[in-house]
């Protein structure tokens, strides 16, 4: 059965750190006024943490703005999602963990006004970012639509992230980005590659120029770019059918390649020395995969 998920990708300049959530609420309300059928609003990485200071003072600015996930910022964001009745991925927040460390954390807020999922960036962009790495992969179920996996910017450079999210049943990977540097071109290739090798949708939302390099996009499970933006501020809309993931995995990319059906019961486990682990054919299929 078709499972369309109307998306609005907000490619915008970041809102300065410390700005009241009410300013962001106005932005989201404007998006929904223009695109009222939207069910999931997605914003770039650190969208609520734009910088007011010189680069050398940035880490102190982030530390000053950090809050725990049970703090007022996340409560207000959850209330916003509930008031508007939409799924809201407001980019990432600078989280102050119980251990006192800073984490770059992606959120999904539900139409019922609750925090549905939070994911701490596993691969901070070193040596430039001050965050402690997260220690787990995260997916969230959007009832009536499907399962969403979370990755943040530089995570896309590590294939283990997208592979684990797909194995956990993600049908779409949401990747908020704040790329201000010359490597956006490579990120576009990685978005397609992660979609192809895992047969998932990939949604990449970047900060707009002049701060960021834009070029947000949606990629389908066969690696085709469905929609893409330039560098300027815009709202990119799309309605991917998440049942395309089921179709592609069942029939194969281009009707050929069925990467999640690669192994048989007769195959031996493949040792993975890098991870001190293995690929076990009996554990290869994604969670929730359709029967053969």
TrEMBL record:
Signal peptide: none
Alphabetized GO MF terms: N-carbamoylputrescine amidase activity
Matching InterPro entries: Aliph_Amidase/BUP (IPR050345), C-N_Hydrolase (IPR003010), C-N_Hydrolase_sf (IPR036526)
Domain CN hydrolase positions: 5-244
Gene3D superfamilies (UniProt xref): Carbon-nitrogen hydrolase (3.60.110.10)
PANTHER family: FORMAMIDASE, NITRILASE C965.09-RELATED
Identification of the protein by name: Amidohydrolase
Natural source organism: Nonomuraea thailandensis
């Amino acid at each position: 059965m078709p499972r369309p998920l109307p998306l609005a990708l907000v490619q915008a300049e970041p809102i300065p750190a410390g700005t009241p959530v009410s300013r962001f609420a106005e932005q989201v309300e404007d998006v929904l006024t223009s695109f009222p059928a939207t069910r999931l609003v997605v914003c770039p990485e650190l969208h609520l943490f734009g910088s007011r200071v010189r680069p050398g003072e940035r880490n102190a600015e982030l530390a000053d703005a950090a809050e725990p996930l049970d703090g007022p910022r996340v409560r207000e964001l959850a209330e916003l999602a509930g008031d508007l009745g939409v799924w809201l991925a407001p980019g990432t927040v600078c989280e102050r963990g119980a251990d006192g460390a800073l984490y770059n954390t992606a959120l999904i807020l539900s139409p019922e006004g609750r925090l549905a999922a939070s994911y701490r960036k596993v691969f901070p962009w070193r040596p430039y970012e001050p965050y402690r790495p997260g220690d787990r992969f995260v997916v969230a179920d959007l009832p009536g639509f499907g399962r969403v996996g979370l990755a943040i910017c530089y995570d896309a450079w590590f294939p283990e992230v997208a592979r684990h999210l797909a194995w956990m049943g993600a049908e779409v990977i949401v990747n908020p980005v704040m790329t201000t540097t010359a490597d956006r071109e490579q990120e576009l290739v990685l978005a397609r590659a992660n979609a192809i090798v895992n047969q998932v949708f990939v949604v990449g939302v970047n900060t707009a120029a002049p701060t960021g390099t834009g070029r947000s996009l949606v990629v389908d499970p066969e690696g085709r770019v469905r929609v893409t933006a330039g560098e300027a501020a815009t709202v990119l809309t799309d309605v991917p059918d998440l049942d395309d993931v089921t179709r592609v995995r069942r029939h194969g990319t281009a009707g050929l390649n069925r990467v999640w059906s690669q192994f048989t019961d007769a195959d031996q486990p493949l040792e993975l020395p890098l991870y001190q682990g293995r690929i076990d054919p009996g554990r290869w299929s994604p969670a929730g995969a359709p029967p053969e």
